[in-house]
Amino acid sequence: xLRVSIVKKFDSFALNxxxxxxxxxxxxxxxxxxxKTSVIRAIAGLLACDRAEVSFERRDISKxxxxxxxxxxxxxxxxxxxxxxxxxNLRYGGTYGEDAVIAVLGLGALLGRYPTSISGGEKQRxxxxxxxxxxxKVLLLDEPLSGLDAPRKAEVLPYLEALRDQTSIPILxxxxxxxxxxxxxxxxxxxxxxxxxxxxxxxxxxANPVAVPFLGVRDAGAVLTGHVVGHSNDxxxxxxxxxxxxxxxxxVGRAGSSVRLRVPAQxxxxxxxxxxxxxxxxxxxxxxxxxERGTDFGVAVxxxxxxxxxxxxxxxxxxxxxxxxxxxxxxAILKATAIAPADxx
Amino acid sequence: xxxxxGPAEWTALWLSLKVAFxxxxxxxxxxxxxxxxxxxxxxxxxxxxxxxxxxxxVMPPVVTxxxxxxxxGRTGPLGEFFEDLFGIIFAFRWTGAALAAAVMGFPLMVRxxxxxxxxxxxxxxxxxxxxxxxxxxxxxxxxLPLAWPGILAGAVLGFAKGMGEFGATVTFVSNIPGQTQxxxxxxxxxxxxxxxxxxxxxxxxxxxxxxxxxxTVSEFLAQRVSKRRAT
Lengths: 345, 231
Prior knowledge:
Shape of chain A: globular
Distance between the termini of chain A: 26 Å
Number of domains of chain B: 1
Number of domains of chain A: 2
Radius of gyration of chain B: 20 Å
Number of helices of chain B: 10
CATH superfamily of the largest domain in chain A: P-loop containing nucleotide triphosphate hydrolases
Low-confidence stretches of chain A: none
Helix content of chain A: 10-25%
Low-confidence stretches of chain B: none
Radius of gyration of chain A: 22 Å
Mean pLDDT of chain A: 91
Structural class of chain A: alpha+beta
Strand order of the largest sheet of chain A: 6-7-8-3-9-10
Mean pLDDT of chain B: 88
Largest sheet of chain B: none
Largest sheet of chain A: 6 strands, mixed
Order of helices and strands of chain A: EEEHEEEHHHEHEHEEHHEEEEEEEEHE
Number of strands of chain B: 0
Number of helices of chain A: 9
Helix content of chain B: over 70%
Number of strands of chain A: 19
Largest interface: A-B, 24 and 18 residues
Strand content of chain B: under 5%
CATH architecture of chain B: Orthogonal Bundle
Oligomer: heterodimer
CATH class of chain B: Mainly Alpha
Order of helices and strands of chain B: HHHHHHHHHH
CATH class of the largest domain in chain A: Alpha Beta
Strand content of chain A: 35-45%
CATH topology of chain B: MetI-like fold
Distance between the termini of chain B: 47 Å
């Protein structure tokens, strides 16, 4: 368990952050300028703070210089050493698990090359491998995908998933991309203006209607876990989730493989009666568990669907016209295409 | 070929190379230290250090030579210190000429090294730290290798300055053939004796050749630095 408590006053805002991160991926999520990078720089000892308590397995590391903290840091801009080959870069911090790291990250063909002659995605994989080979006790990833275009992101993401599934250390993953967070993280710490506004498991936080204003209207939405039942001839995939069976677009995974689906709150339609003759493929019976009226025109509606949770965002006008109250049994309508393939993983 | 220059002139050329070589070798570590402090340090007196380093560049060389005479002459406090401790005498010796050359070349050397240090992305040094490298290891494996073209360029500039130094040298250690009479000082003498002009011209050509080579090498190395900055 990594325990973090940091206080630092900047000119424009104050950072005051306390959270714990167990083994596995914890996302640090927030808009730019919310202090995400400052938090992990403080953990690595690269940012002097007014007060910093950082401990790992009850060992206080907050007084140690960066090179004694046993922390792996993957920077947004990779920071590979330009005068060293890929292999020398990888070995700079140690040779822990060298063969496995090179194999898992697919670096075998790059070892003799130099950083200036490899692609952005390859650089990011080398940076990841270099951090891992230093045998870190905590891994910090600072938006490792944000400098990459969509194809390069798709190239690196599977490696990050493999990393998540194969290591048993705490990994802090700084991101402002909810798609990445939903796909990789099991826990999330939501930052806003240097403060922790919400933290917990990804399922809990993303299904919490209170989170909507902090996550942003576009990013709010519950995460469902399920497994692939099969693929249809007309190009859809059926996934059995705790909320019921859902059809999603495209051919996703293999039958039996487990997947996570992100259901954007703004793409969920609510109805009093089960609709007939609609084009939407997914209609789920749900129960309203909470209503959170926003400061604008919207209402966040928390829903129980089977043994899972969903989040919908509708207008105050619709909410009032339908007379929605807690405990109502209604229907949630999900367009299959609203669940974008990029969010499925 | 050997009679193209007289024996006195060959001695002067050889002496100049010796003086410039030792001046460069001994001032390089200090030059790097000063450049590192100016590029990376944030300490009280940083601006004072900057001024001090650049003073020999802007002061009249005669003044620098006079100050050296006061400090490093046989009765000067530093002169006595070096003689007692290391047995090194600067006054009216080639070692004094080397000291004058080192002091005069110092600002040029520091400037070149400092520019190359400032061109290094400090994020790389940070990254090396997170990989477990101590400050010394970061300096040895990241900073020095990335700055080496600038360090070499600084050394070349310091060497070239040392080859041609006149004012501070003649003030500090006078003009003694075989001991302190370097290339520049020989030319000065030759111009004052009747019939010495052809030899002076030959020495001038030698000087120009050495200066040209030095500048070309330092320019080439500077380009390598800016190329690295671009990538």
